[in-house]
Write a structure and sequence with these properties.
CATH class of the largest domain: Alpha Beta
Oligomer: single chain
Strand order of the largest sheet: 2-1-3-5-6-4
Strand content: 15-25%
Number of strands: 12
Largest sheet: 6 strands, mixed
Low-confidence stretches: none
Number of domains: 2
CATH superfamily of the largest domain: NAD(P)-binding Rossmann-like Domain
Radius of gyration: 20 Å
Bound molecules: NADP nicotinamide-adenine-dinucleotide phosphate
Order of helices and strands: HEHEHEEHEEHEHEHEEEHEHH
Structural class: alpha/beta
Number of helices: 10
Shape: globular
CATH architecture of the largest domain: 3-Layer(aba) Sandwich
Length: 293
């Protein structure tokens, strides 16, 4: 219990309570219900945010059922972000460029409006801790999955002009690089095969991990980062509310500046919250109560 009026809102709903949620498979691990319900309660907004375990083959049924129930909006996580694209009536520019939807707002006339707030979340968390310009920095991004597309968009929109994209399946990195090079011709995006033993880190200013390495409680990160220069920043978008990720342990042991994925998670949620409710999420409160390790 944080505050009496907060606990009241968790317990009581009424005929005007509005529905928000998150669709995923799996979904039990999601921190989004805590983030949103805490914020809604703090601002005394009459909504509830619930987790929904939606299997891939039932996504369209779930979206239309949620709409039929009068839901206001929902988030999407793995594996629904890309399939949602084709179910939307409109897409914001970020969702279009990223090719994935993580936030849906349902208008009063039933129109399904798709957004992607991951790039905003990534860059907002970066700027909280890193004040330097991204232009002329050598940035190494590991991975080429869905989250990587949001990270690339955020870096490019913020002025990054030299990105190396390393992925185990190199064809995915090549496709992603060619896609983004087309939209940002002034930027150099170099796709390479991710070989943990051979990669040269000596000139890297910013290392970003967007692979799922570390997501499953692994003890070790397969890349030795000893070659990174002392000024380098390490950013791991993988997060855990309870423990450090393997990459975080490595960065800490070398005394390197580090940003974890929790900030990105909170800020992408804050943007979605603003889209649905028109209000600013109490980000400091969320950080204090949910992520204080
Ligand atoms: N902080 C946040 O708010 C936030 C938001 C979104 C996602 N995330 C995190 O970002 C991570 C990636 O999500 P995603 O949606 O991009 O997943 P995804 O589309 O499934 O992509 C997974 C990526 O990880 C790589 N990978 C997986 N296992 C690997 C291994 N053993 N060695 C090397 N590379 C490996 C894959 O390489 P291949 O292509 O070669 O298979 C691919 O590039 C997840 O951990 C997710 O929790 C965080």
């Amino acid at each position: 219990m944080i505050h009496s009026n907060i606990s009241d809102r968790f317990i009581f709903s009424d005929g005007q309570t509005r529905l928000l949620g998150v669709f995923g498979d799996p979904i039990a691990h999601s921190l989004s219900p805590k983030i949103h319900n805490l914020s809604l309660s703090k601002l005394d907004l009459n909504y509830h945010y619930l987790p929904f375990h939606v299997r891939p083959h039932q996504l369209a049924t779930a979206v239309h059922g949620f709409k039929a129930l009068g839901g206001v909006g929902f988030n999407a996580t793995v594996p629904h972000k890309v399939p949602l694209l084709s179910l939307m009536d409109s897409l914001d520019p970020a969702a279009l460029k990223i090719g994935a939807v993580n936030t849906v707002a349902i208008a009063k006339n039933g129109q399904l409006n798709g957004y992607n707030t991951d790039a905003y979340g990534f860059i907002t968390a970066l700027k909280e801790k890193y004040s330097e310009t991204l232009s002329q920095k050598n940035i190494l991004v590991l991975g080429a999955g869905g989250a990587c597309r949001a990270v690339l968009l955020a870096l490019l929109d913020e002025g990054a002009d030299n990105i190396i994209l390393a992925n185990s399946t190199v064809t995915k990195a090549e496709e992603l690089a060619s896609d983004f090079n087309h939209h940002y011709p002034q930027t150099k995006i170099t796709p390479i095969a991710l070989d943990f033993l051979a990669i040269d880190l000596t000139h890297i200013d910013i290392l970003v991990n967007t692979t799922s390495l570390g997501l499953h409680g692994e003890d070790n990160f397969p890349l030795s980062i000893e070659q990174l220069p002392p000024h380098a920043l390490v950013y791991d978008i993988v997060y855990s509310a309870n423990t450090q990720t393997p990459l975080q342990k490595l960065a800490n042991s070398q005394g390197l500046a580090f940003i974890d994925g929790l900030g990105m998670l909170i800020h992408q949620a804050a943007r979605a919250f603003q889209i649905w409710t028109g209000e600013e999420m109490p980000v400091a409160l969320v950080k204090k109560h949910i992520f204080s390790k």
